[in-house]
């Protein structure tokens, strides 16, 4: 087999592999930041003796390491292809095999354990804790309002949560008008506001987004593992092609007799 064909294919596959590694690492950091945006607003006194790590907190780290390992291994792959070094290609194939196992395992664990009711319960408990904090802490209320605007949600379970202790919806539950450089002002935010009443609670919306993020990261991890398997096949093919190219040509019997004569 020609050296050039597997070399080009491996280079392309490694490029795609690197792009997906970067995407997984970036998405996991984004997911961690979204979870932290909620957890940092909780009442810390409620969690002084709680040392548990819940799935929405663990999943970002799990996929971050998948992306990190992918980037590390892809560097070895590029070096092996450019230098046509059989030793580096062998190391690359072995490392890729480990990454495939890790990526598939992370995806399976996330889909089986994290994409479940336990994530919904964690998000709901966190949102309710933050919601109760808004009653006594204006900074938390402002931060929760930013979340409500971003997720287009209202209250913890539903907009009705505000009816027990407020005279009207907070502005974050209603649409606002923007006029260039002028400050935005809200539409009438009374409890008769139809748009605000139709919004879902933030616990429901956040839990759905968390489930979607887990599925997307898992899918990207499995696809990356599939690309890695093709990369392993190409690396082995390139290594064999290099071996044939560098192997000395066989000496025929007639030529050896001429040398002896």
TrEMBL record:
Write down the membrane topology: Multi-pass membrane protein
Leader peptide range in chain numbering: none
> What cystine pairs are annotated?
154-173
GO CC annotation, single: membrane
**InterPro entries registered for this protein in UniProt:** Tetraspanin/Peripherin, Tetraspanin_animals, Tetraspanin_EC2_sf
Q: Does the keyword S-adenosyl-L-methionine apply?
A: no
* Chief location: membrane
Domain of life, per UniProt, equals Eukaryota
Location(s) in or outside the cell: Membrane
Q: Which residues cross the membrane?
A: 12-38, 58-82, 89-114, 216-238
Q: Which Pfam family, giving just one, matches this sequence?
A: Tetraspanin
Keyword Transmembrane assigned to the entry: answer is yes
- Using the record for this protein, list the coiled-coil segments as residue ranges, or answer none: none
> Which keywords does UniProt give here?
Disulfide bond, Membrane, Transmembrane, Transmembrane helix
Protein family (similarity comment):
Belongs to the tetraspanin (TM4SF) family.
PANTHER family assigned: TETRASPANIN (PTHR19282)
Q: What is this protein called?
A: Tetraspanin
Record organism: Danaus plexippus plexippus
Starting at the broadest rank, the lineage of the source organism is: Eukaryota, Metazoa, Ecdysozoa, Arthropoda, Hexapoda
